[in-house]
Structure formats: C-alpha cells, structure tokens
Specification:
Elements lengths: L1 H22 L16 E2 L10 E13 L8 E5 L9 E5 L1 H4 L13 E7 L1 E3 L2 E5 L6 E3 L4
Parallel strand pairs: 1-2, 4-7
Antiparallel strand pairs: 2-3, 2-5, 3-4, 5-8, 6-7
C-alpha cells in the first residue's frame, strides 16, 4: 500500500509540474528569466534554446501560412524570412483567435514574447501558447 501511495504521489508531482509549464505556471509565469523586465535580445536567442525565456525585438515581417496545418502566423524579429539570422514567433490559428487585434499590426513595433525557446531549421523560435505571452514594448 505504501508503494502505491508513493507511486501515485510521484505521478501527481510529475504531471502537475508538466502542466504548470504548459499553462504558464511555475515554469513560465513565476520564473524571473521569463519576464519582459530583463529579456534576451532576439539576436542572442540562440544562446537560450531549450530554456523558458523572454525574447525582445522589432517585428520586421508578419506572414500567415494559410496552406499549412493550423494556419500559423510568423512574426519575424530582427530580419525577415528567409534570412537565417532572425527570431520567429509562431502563432497558430487557435491562439490567434484570442487576440483583440491582428498580430500583423505589430509589424514595425518592438515586442516581447515569453515561452520555451526552440530551434527549427537553425532559427530560434517560440510557439506562442496564448495572447498574453506576447506584449507590445512600444506602449500600445
């Protein structure tokens, strides 16, 4: 009986920690490294791949791939696609629906995005999990 309780507690802890990272709990919202108070510049995002971080930079291009599953919108920070020296914010259609205004309206503005930095085809990126994880740093 003691072993079953120990195993059940372990599963709850592992699952609970995993969920907190997905929905913005301890792994994102409470982590000082994941606030826009002290973000990583877009051109240094490759240094934090695999970490939950806040990335800041200018949106130089915004495009939506309607022919791709999930119709992702890509915000390119620093340089436009196809330049490999850029940072991508990926916003899938289901998350995009939660925005008050179109993410494309952020083109030409400085933004901060929070989340787990990953890399795709050598380009660091964050897949946005909710509209609140992206903020306009120019005050709008």
């Amino acid at each position: 009986m003691r072993n079953i309780v120990g195993i059940a507690l372990g599963v709850v802890l592992v699952v609970g920690f995993g969920l907190s990272r997905v929905v913005g709990g301890a792994g994102l919202g409470g982590d000082p490294a994941a606030t826009c108070d002290d973000p990583v510049r877009w051109d240094r995002a490759g240094e934090v791949v695999g970490q939950v971080s806040a990335i800041v930079g200018p949106v130089v291009a915004a495009t939506t791939a309607e022919d791709v599953g999930g119709a992702p919108t890509f915000l390119n920070l620093g340089n436009a696609h196809p330049a490999p020296e850029r940072f991508d914010v990926v916003i899938y259609e289901d998350v995009r629906e939660g925005f008050d205004a179109s993410p494309e309206a952020l083109q030409g503005r400085n933004v901060c995005v929070r989340g787990e930095v990953r890399e795709r085809d050598g380009v660091p990126q964050i897949v946005l999990r909710g509209p609140g994880w992206l903020s306009d740093q120019d005050g709008n």
